[in-house]
Design goal:
Elements lengths: L1 E6 L2 E4 L4 E9 L6 E7 L6 E7 L4 E3 L7 E6 L4 E6 L8 E8 L4 E4 L3 E6 L1
Parallel strand pairs: 2-11
Antiparallel strand pairs: 1-3, 3-8, 4-5, 4-9, 5-6, 7-8, 9-10, 9-11
């Protein structure tokens, strides 16, 4: 079992920054990856960014150049630095663990609100 706990969400003005954290505990798979997803009201959950255990990163086009995903493997923690936030970035942000087969484990989510 893997437990994921997000933190760092909050209210920020457009153009501002936030850093989200995702602390993982339990038996994470070194064959997989960690990722961030988000879900706005009335919309489907969408991919934001992912980072593999070897450090490879991938981003949704909508956040490229503004968001940066990173990890501290010694702390089993993943981060999402979000800069130049836009109102359309407002959502509940979830971290997830890909075991090599699927996005099997999910956190409870943290709310990000961006005021215009």
């Amino acid at each position: 079992q893997v437990q994921l706990v997000e933190s760092g969400g909050g209210l920020v003005q457009a153009g501002g920054s936030l850093r989200l954290s995702c602390a993982a505990s339990g038996r994470t798979s070194s064959d997989g990856a960690m990722g961030w997803f988000r879900q706005a009201p009335g919309k489907e959950r969408e991919f934001v960014a992912t980072i593999t255990w070897s450090g490879g990163t991938y981003y949704a086009d909508s956040v490229k150049g503004r968001f940066t995903v990173s990890s501290d493997n010694a702390k089993n923690t993943m981060y999402l630095q979000m800069n130049s936030l836009k109102p359309e970035d407002a959502a509940v942000y979830y971290c997830a663990h890909h075991t090599g087969a699927s996005w099997e484990y999910w956190g409870q989510g943290t709310q990000v609100t961006v005021s215009s």
